[in-house]
Specification:
The chain is α+β, with helices and mostly antiparallel strands. It has seven helices and ten strands. The termini are far apart.
Length: 242
């Protein structure tokens, strides 16, 4: 319902896309009902207007339609085949649940987010969730995904940790401050630096394209990441802190 209200530009664009491509939507849902689960490439692109090729989506609008329907709970990602997502009607996979009002749903989501993040910023300042612990933070070193909940809210991360972070994969190369896919370095309870690793699958190595900030314990995090990725080793000599 929030998406249908059109609060944000992308929501309004999605609504307009569905309106323009009503027959396309009916076709996709009908095919999923008959044959699902299906890969997006198994569905014909019957969209009203084709677009220029995109480096991620190509020039097909099937993926765009499925993403919109997924966001609205109409279709679901139910598995993978050859690394590609399998799609099906959500009603076949999502369990029936109690229906609540939009206000109640938003209140429940806000409470879950507050509990998961531990703190939130209010008009009166920072507020800690009652279940949040004030115990010591383990002395560990790890690299965070750009989508990790600790830094997902960039403004919150900067306010809490004094750490300015932006994902620059959408920024033209010449305008990037750091790199295409840079990961924050977390040491204990502090964000101390960032690194841009690259998994060279052909060579079986984890390479470092750049590193910034305090990298004194970066090797520990790189060894852990290499093990997770199944890389044979890390070319540590290739990086110097910037």
């Amino acid at each position: 319902m929030r998406r249908r209200r059109g609060k944000y530009t992308f929501e309004r664009r999605a609504t307009e896309f569905l309106k323009t491509n009503a027959r396309f939507k009916q076709y996709v849902l009908r095919e999923l009902e008959r044959n699902g689960p299906m890969l997006s490439r198994e569905l014909e692109d019957l969209s009203h207007q084709k677009r220029e090729s995109h480096r991620w989506y190509g020039n097909r609008n099937v993926g765009i339609l499925l993403e919109i329907l997924h966001g609205r709970g109409v279709v679901a990602i139910v598995g993978r085949s050859g690394g590609q997502r399998l799609w099906d009607l959500a009603e076949r996979w999502y369990p029936e649940t109690e229906t609540v009002s939009l206000r109640e749903a938003e209140r429940a989501i806000a409470e879950k987010r507050f509990r998961a993040l531990g703190v939130r910023l209010t008009a009166a300042g920072w507020e800690a969730h009652p279940s949040a612990s004030d115990g010591s933070v383990p002395d560990r070193v790890t690299l965070l995904s750009p989508f990790d909940r600790l830094i997902h809210d960039r403004d919150r991360a900067e306010a809490l940790f004094d750490f300015h972070y932006r994902l620059e994969m959408y920024v033209p190369k010449a305008k990037r401050e750091y790199g295409y896919y840079v990961l924050p370095i977390l040491v204990g309870g502090r964000l101390v630096g960032r690194v841009e690793p690259l998994h060279d699958r052909k060579a079986g190595m984890l390479r470092v394209l750049g590193a910034w900030g305090d990298t004194s314990r970066l090797d520990e995090a790189l060894d852990s990441l290499a093990t997770f990725l199944g890389a044979e080793g890390v070319e540590k000599a290739t990086y110097t802190a910037k």
